[in-house]
Design brief:
The protein is mostly helical and 55 residues long. The chain has four helices and no strands. Helix 2 packs across helix 4.
Length: 55
């Protein structure tokens, strides 16, 4: 089964994960981490990995 057949677009998934990570870090009132691209990327990767497991 191809990515198109299951409706999986890696760029859309990752952009959603980045947005979710930034929102989570901001909600935790941890502005230092929320403004750190590396911290956002780490959390986004964790969210993406879990999303792929759930697919």
């Amino acid at each position: 089964m191809s990515n198109e057949e299951i409706g999986y677009d890696p760029s859309v998934l990752m952009s959603g994960c980045i947005q979710a990570a930034a929102t989570i870090l901001a909600a935790e009132a941890n502005s230092a981490k929320a403004n750190d691209p590396e911290e956002v990327a780490k959390l986004a990767a964790m969210i993406r990995d879990e999303a792929l497991v759930q697919m």
